[in-house]
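[09:14] KT: can someone run the structure on this one? pasting the chain below
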Amino acid sequence: MSFQYKTLIQFKNISLTFDNRSVLDCISGSIVDGNRIGLIGVNGSGKSSLLQCIAGLTDKYTGDIVRNCSVEYIPQLDFELYRKDVPLHQYLGDIYEDWWKVFREYEKLFKSKLEDDRILSTLSGGEIVKLSLALALVKSPEVILFDEPTNHLDLNSLKALRSVLINANFSFVIVSHNINFLNSTANTIWEIEKGNLNIYGGNYKFYKEEKNNLVVKQKEEINALNKEINKLQKVSSHKYSQARSLHKKVSSRNPYVRKLAGKKSRNAKILKTETEKKTIELIEKKKKLLNKNAYIDLNTEQKSGLILSINKGWLILPNNQELIKDMDMNIYHENRIAILGDNGIGKTTLIKQLDYNKNKLIKGDITYGSEYKTVYVDQNYDLVHPEKSIFENIPVNNKLITYENVRKVLGNVCFPSDWDIQKTVSTLSGGETARLAFAIATSSDIDLLILDEPTNNLDIDTVEVISKSLREFNGTLIVISHDMHFLKEVDIKDLYIIKNRRLQWI
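[09:31] RB: done, structure tokens below
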């Protein structure tokens, strides 16, 4: 007798439209006992929207959803929601009756404590994500929907979350750009592509192999259709030529024969035109299945020598809090460096001080090489001006850039049309804002590129594009990231870790 898995959630013919654009197009699926689903798709494809539909947090869809279980949804981190000057026990008490259990779960999961009188607004991004995870887990739901939980988590926290999911007694759907994480936790991949839901029975590695095979097959079909068009053109042109020749020969003879010859000539032309048209339409349809990826062109003049040297340095906040002591660090042109460490330990504060001649918080012996141009892309994309349009943002960073080059830079990151570039930044998704931030960063020459958790909010395809661009970048690169796959892909050479208030080379 075969064991029947319980269907926890079933959805059928779900459609969702935003601003007259179809996001989800009549998709169906189900979540059953034991499902460990990785949900992927390009930014704006509808991943978060699907999770919100499944969780029952929106009714802006058509179709049917049946839930036979308890569900918890952990949304993407929105810092604005947590900028409240209230103690944690009050914040949690308003949303969960047994609020003290959350602190116990937090400590059990992450081997660290949160004081219940800690002010909510003082939590780091990683601490907020971990608090949300602990809150969801203490409720013991049958299904948890995770929307980018790996963003902002340090290596130890990622390891803890991975362990929870591998040993989970609940089913889950998780949106993540972290390939290693998906490979180790997911047994099914859901891909949202052009409004459709494609399901692959395996981890991300299995999905990628199947997807690559499909792309190869599609390209082969396009090539075969192109050959068919060439053949049709030759055959049809020959028949059309014969018909015209016949028409010419009988033009001075019997009017009926002349009319018949003309009809044959026109039919041959119609056959040629209609057949080519249908074949070309089929090619275009297949080409649309092949996604257009962003391209990021990092500009720099190749240089050598010292950028910055710190000897016996101390990183001290304005309130005299000591973050790092006795720090030695030498940065040269073409160095590729990653900074690691737990959440809230001072990584972001440190890299902000590495801009040319801005080391106000570092005390000690500091030596500069020649002047260098720095671009810093932070987790919140502060170099982006939300009140301006996409187009207006580029000249803010590079006042000498021409209109044509602005269009080129924006086109490279998939903002090609006049309608795209006129949109106000505040209306963009997190992934679109990230792409714009990289467009701004690449609109002028860079000597030192500093990236703070650059893969947050980006879909896997865009992360791959950025990785390729960074591999080709011959300037200096400093990255904060806990995505080891990404660090390997961008060819990081030097790893530093902040531990026990010291910066250590590893």
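[09:33] KT: thanks! The chain has three domains: 7-194, 212-287, 306-505.
[09:34] RB: yep, looked fine to me
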